[in-house]
């Protein structure tokens, strides 16, 4: 299935990395990844594997990490583009790359569609203790780093 990933910035977007199997949230038309978790743009939760990420100007992408005030875009050739996601959303830092739009094509394999509502998902997140939230975050970061083949990243703080 092909889905569009377009940033809403401000750390509201889902990180996506090739090979990652996780829960992802899609819009009502199932054509886009949902940003945030509000009932306005959320339709369904799916357990899926990210198979391929491409951009018309950047080519093949290994992953997009949306942790923190800047997003990190890992290109297939090993370069990393750092993009502001807070003060000047979409501004690229210190790069030879010029990007006219931030729409990415993502191929996913849906393993399972869940039936959880946005209220159930939000309630589950709120019920987690601080330690449980920290553990889940650390597990996700470790998984991203393994999939990207890196040992250190600015967003891992």
Please give a handful of descriptors for the protein shown:
single chain, 157 residues, alpha+beta, 9-stranded antiparallel beta sheet, 18% helix, 34% strand
Could you characterize what this model shows?
Strands 1, 2, 3, 4, 5, 6, 7, 8 and 9 form a nine-stranded antiparallel sheet that branches. It is built from two helices and nine strands. The protein has 157 residues and is α+β, with helices and mostly antiparallel strands. The mean pLDDT is 90.
Q: Mind describing the biggest β-sheet?
A: 9 strands, antiparallel
- Please give the number of β-strands: 9
SS class: alpha+beta
What is the N-to-C order of secondary-structure elements (H for helix, E for strand)? EEEEEEEEEHH
Spans where pLDDT lies below 50 across 5 or more residues = none
Which outline best applies? globular
